[in-house]
């Protein structure tokens, strides 16, 4: 017997037929004697419709009201799935965030879970009742208003519920059957990764892989929750019920490093197309200049990623290149215009015609030469590197967007990730 | 300054444009210095979509889950209206049933309001904040689950909120500009009624007029809440703001009898097409036979309305005719089959090809001859009466559905209700 959290995203509950399919996935676990809590997103498209209505009324609206409107989507799915389960002869009830309660901070629209009182939920689950929990939302403690966790927040809800009820595993059902070495649409030879460490998954998520929300992986890592990524788009009877002793047989298991017997030097290649490059030319090279550029950007909550600085031939001026999210480029440029008024003339150039390609692998820690091999491979293909950033377990380069697929394919092959 | 509850139904909030129109109605009251609580229904069509999904999963589902799903519609409208009001510069917030809380009994799907703790709401409204309250729903006290009040329940929510915050008037905005002497689609000469007593409105509502939910009128009568029926489909600037001293100038005011100076003998003609007639022929005429027929029907929660009994020429057998809601006819017939097995052979005939036409007027109490005039008028038109029922302030007859319009027009004229 295992205690299992099963999370189903928007495409997995997009219509009544798919909700019935989810009910069959849950039934498989119940029939095997497992205790189950399910976390659901809104039906695909529902949240977008709600957001569109809100935006039509007011582009900058009260986030508390935004949350009250948008949270209704998960409420609908949770009730419908509870009914589908009952129709299949399973004892089940829906739980809304405020009913459990899932307490959050007051950052409406992007709230963080502060505390879950899982006692009542756990008792019901242990008695064999399936709990169907609304993802993406909780209740803000001070005023009792509904707060949502931001896009993709249902993954985080699922992990938090897994912590609260002491689940053995948190299975994230999605429209792919696991985490791949890279996007299979770009590299058909991409392979499913059977086991991946939290650290690697974190890098993957933050570097462009859309399978799991970054925050959910952080939370799983902190509390040691074993996460699995599975597909809901298979016949429910084709998947085995959860067996804690044999989790790694299907999907991708995200777990701690020491549970992975044979680590790869490189686990995967990620790429992110929503980057923009900003270059500042001919700025006076004196102490404090970087702080006077990046300080105002940080104050405006603009996340700066890769930074490269060159000294100009005259030794008095410098050039600086950095990246921001493409969506934040207009705001970043406005901030820089203000900085220019303060710092004196410099030239600003920007482009969102770039892509960040990253090589990720926990084995890098003990293997030299991973970065050198990356640079050599790109050089062999005639691809110019615009910026580089590294961490202990990844190397990222910024390149022209035209070369994205070429670079990803070449790197996937050179690190031995292509399927045999 | 007045404290005003404004209730807007589904067609009044059917889309973003109409929600913005509602915001302008509210702004008119706020600008006049009135304190406002708004009660909203789900956007027209939203509840039907939710109910369809539930039915597709399970025709007979857990009413608690049904309620969790269906209540989401009002949550959306309340949030959207709060945003629209804020965009118009008005301080506003949405309130869900469980946040106030509106406590109900446990009859999910058709719950009754048990208690509203209006203190917090009243304080905020008195400070000038517009409260936008979800209609149709509350929270069931014992288990903290959402409970809905049944179709049309938002009218009842509005009256209950008016009681809880001590409002001066409860304005029900709908797609017509008041209560009419009869349906204007049938009788173009029908006139808007300026003032009508609770008792008459109750009869109108229960006899087929769809303007107000019966229960909301009962509640208003018990607590003496002045109700008005107004149209939201007019330019908000064309209506005057609430002035407690001059409520009767627009729409229809529903109030106590002693506030109506000049009462009509007959106030209106109602008709209900959703009736079905059941006739039982040749049943043995002995004591207790009626109880053995109507007892089982009552136990099955089937509401029997008009009852007529004739003694057959042999003196030993009797015929009985009664009406039920057309939707309940199949269930009623099943119950009668069981009764027949118990009571011995009798013949059952049924038809939903009937209509109940009612003449309503508080002045009947002091005027004889109202019923006689009704029967004579129908007789003059050659319309056969199938059954009759009367109360202190109404006379209802059951006739063949083919004659419905003819009967309503003739009665409307003969009681002097046609517009001059």
Description of the molecule:
- Two copies of one chain form a homodimer.
- The first copy, chain A, folds into two domains: 3-258, Carbamate kinase (3-Layer(aba) Sandwich), CATH 3.40.1160.10; 268-414, VC0802-like, CATH 3.30.2130.10.
- Chain A is built from twelve helices and 18 strands.
- Chain A has helices spanning 16-31, 46-57, 63-70, 72-87, 119-126, 153-165, 198-206, 214-223, 289-299, 329-343, 370-380, 404-414; strands spanning 3-8, 35-40, 92-95, 102-104, 113-116, 130-134, 137-140, 146-148, 169-174, 195-197, 227-231, 252-255, 268-284, 307-311, 317-325, 347-360, 387-391, 394-400.
- In chain A, the strands form three sheets. Chain A has an eight-stranded mixed β-sheet, with helices on both faces. A six-stranded antiparallel β-sheet of chain A has the order 14-15-13-16-18-17.
- Chain A starts with a strand and ends in a 6-residue tail after the last helix.
- At the A-B interface, helix 1, helix 2, helix 3 and helix 4 of A face helix 1, helix 2, helix 3 and helix 4 of B.
